[in-house]
Design goal:
This protein is an alpha+beta fold and 597 residues long. The chain contains 13 helices and 23 strands. The chain has a 15-stranded antiparallel sheet that branches. The longest helix has 21 residues.
Length: 597
Amino acid sequence: MSLPIERYAVLSDCRSAALVSDDGSLDWLCLPRFDSASIFAKLLGDDEHGSWSLRPADPQARPSRRYDGDSFVLVTRWEASDGVVDVYEFMPLHPERQGVVRRVVGVSGAVEMTSELRLRFDYARATPWVRQIGSHDMPVLRALAGPDSVVVRGPRLHPDGRAHRAVFAVAAGETVDSVLTWGEAFRDAPDAFDVDDALDHARGWWSEWAGRGGIDGAHRDLAVRSMLVLRALTHADTGGIVAAATTSLPEDFGGARNWDYRYVWLRDAALTLEAYIDHGYLGAAHRWRRWLLRAVAGDPADVQVLYGIAGERDLSERELPQLPGYDGSRPVRVGNGAVDQYQADVLGEVLVALESARLAGLDETRFSWGLQRALVEQVAASIDRPDNGIWEIRGEPRMFTHSRVMVWAALDRGIRAVEEHGLEGPADRWRAARDAVRRRIEERAVDPATGAFRQHEDTDEVDASLLLIPTVGFCAADDPRMRATVARIEQTLLTDGFVLRYRTQTGVDGLAGTEHPFLACSFWLVRQYAAMGRGDDARELMTRLAAVPNDLGLMSEEYDPATGRHVGNTPQALSHLALVAAADALAGRTGRAASRH
């Protein structure tokens, strides 16, 4: 059985991420980027697919863990029969050095520790050639396969079948470091570095960044951790914001709803950008706008739903049969087939976010407004085209209501840019298109029997994305149609107190199996409750949601309220940014909606 997803901590250097379980096993690591092939992939298989265990030899040793303040330095205290140790784990924040540090500090007694290393490169397709290159006093293990190499410094590791093991004792007051550093196989092994300096820098950098967000309110700690997660998923060099740190953690345990989220979705990145802007991180907004200009350069008709971290376009989806999957959930996928979809809401999200940046004081350049104008024109040329929607359905394209509203928002932001900011563009033509989109929504996307917005024009179903309609100014949060929509969502999508995206039983998504409540949707309902004057309901739901993050404040994509298990890829940017928006709403911060009415 795979460990529950909520038992994992994440480490990050803002270029990649590692997942470490609460029993001391590093089970997921891809270097040098989030979307690189794995070095450790036990998360999607077992020990033989790559892992690095570091824990007391005492099988009854008890762990407790925390992050070191507002950072991604993980501290695990182990209480064993022979004493107590603290293990500090982090990824150094260095522009030319990547890897993981695992430092054991003796607290009391003399604890016997075991380190068991199984290196498996390229999603466990390559067992590397391993050799000792250090000295007796300073052991160094180097592993090579294909283009990749890692160096491990620390206690001497001895071969043990297809693994390498070390056993060492740590007495009170002693410190023992194990350091894994990635490098290119055709270059010399990377040099050692000062772990004390790296640890101090990591603590200080994360804490300083978190302190600039101005977050307060009843859920401050969770919101700060969520902002930190968003930063952890933002690539330090390119500015690309990945949707999650993992691939193929299932939405349906044992099923086939397993997707690769280690890429930059324009929608999710635009929503993250707004969270950055709302909390004063304009530097991140500027970097992401530069990323966008590079990624979508060319014909606006060729704009994709998602890109690679540096703006790559070829993200063809394929399966990895050598990995059995989390809890047997197959197939394991890399790449994402949504890259070929048309999702009409995406450009709306981008243009709304860029307007927020403009209102926050980010100056337009000739290139940035030229891009936006071209995107508005592309939207105007596609207003009657069915799409796959925010949920990336793999069934028949539809006229999804949320998508139509975001088409409206895209045109609206173009008009505002011309009329309120003095930028050049055919505002009258865009206005005619915007008004035509509104008329169609009001005529075809509202169910006359209930007065609620529909999921799409050919159904009476609702979906949770309709909760976002007021946030872009299409209507007020207390509009009768929104009140009716909320009532329908409560009737049909609430399960055990949490919100589903939509009813999979309708077959709209073209996929077999089912799924669990989608965490972002429940946070959206909190925000909607708050905006429509149902403050008690908003606080009650937020209290329920505040119990979902694990002991470190991390969330995946979905949640199973029956078992308390996290479901789907983790940590999930959309879940965390939705938490921030909900916390802001309860604290009286209006965020993106403030400039829309």
